[in-house]
Amino acid sequence: MNQKPIISAPTPLLPNAEAFAHVEHWVFDLDNTLYSHEAKVWPQVDERITLFLGELFGLDGLSSRALQKYYYQRYGTTLKGLMEEHGVNPDDFLDFAHQIDLSLLDPNPALGDAIAALPGRKLILTNGSRGHAENVAGKLGILHHFEDIFDIVEAGFLPKPERATYEHFLAKHAVDPGRAAMFEDIEKNLLVPSALGMKTVLIIPQTPDPFREAWEQAAIEAGHVHHVTTDLTGFLAPLGRPTKGSR
Question: CA within 20 to 30 Å of 154's CA: 65, 89, 131, 160, which one?
């Protein structure tokens, strides 16, 4: 596939509302999509995963980190690798990984208003756990705007970007992909949604996130990435319809 990283978004920050006029299912990833990296949420999860591997296998930090990234690259998530190769209990892993401090994650009423004003259903599709999604979205003050959460457990521990995961999600929630939009922070996770007919939006950080690889936060110019933005709230605002008491 012909694609290349670019420095700035290939489309304007504020979208043409007509491009989303058909959308009635709004699907959001969680981590690094609904909040910015300044909240230091994902680095804590990442560090907890490294610690889990170190304690499980008796490894030092560098060796644990290398093994973690190996599983991530090969299986899509570290958890999937641990389950496949070592029979690790996923509940133990998820509980450990998501024991984090959310004190730097502030409520975002503006984002809540923008989501509430979107016409149709709103859902979260995450490779994390339901509990983690509820905690994060709850701290942001936006949890009540979402109809449901489809997490890694619901996916049978098969992570995005696997096609079967999206198909399971669409079937479970009766989502018509031709009338849906997907918001994600990792470009490869938009390949299948685009192929299924969803409108896709890539969320990139306003400033580089030092805790993530460059490829994980790059704006990508590619056919499966329909829009790119550094400001989810600002992007959503023109797409909504005014509602009373949206907060």
Answer: 65
Answer whether 4-39+105-239 and 42-97 agree in fold.
Answer: no
Whole-number Å distance between alpha carbons of 119 and 236: 11
| Residue-range domain boundaries for the chain | 4-39+105-239, 42-97
DSSP-based three-state secondary structure for 211: coil
202: β partners: 184, 228
pTM (whole model) above 0.85: yes
Phi, psi (5° rounding) for residue 124? -110, 135
pLDDT at 183: 98
Residues 6 or more apart in contact with residue 240 via CB below 8 angstroms: 114, 116, 117, 118, 119
* Topology adopted by domain 42-97: DNA polymerase; domain 1 (1.10.150)
Q: Which residues lie below 8 Å from residue 210, measured CB to CB, with a gap of 6+? A: none
Encode pLDDT of 187-219 as tens digits.
999 999 999 999 999 999 988 888 888 877 777
pLDDT in tens, 98-146: 999 999 999 999 999 999 999 999 999 999 999 999 999 999 999 999 9
Query: Which residue in 23, 29, 39 sits closest to 149, CA to CA?
Result: 29
Written as six digits, the tokens of 73 are 């690259």
Give mean pLDDT, residues 9-38: 85
What are the CA-CA distances from residue 103 to residues 44, 100, 159, 207 (Å)?
A: 12, 9, 28, 21
β-strands 227-229, 219-221: how paired?
Answer: unpaired
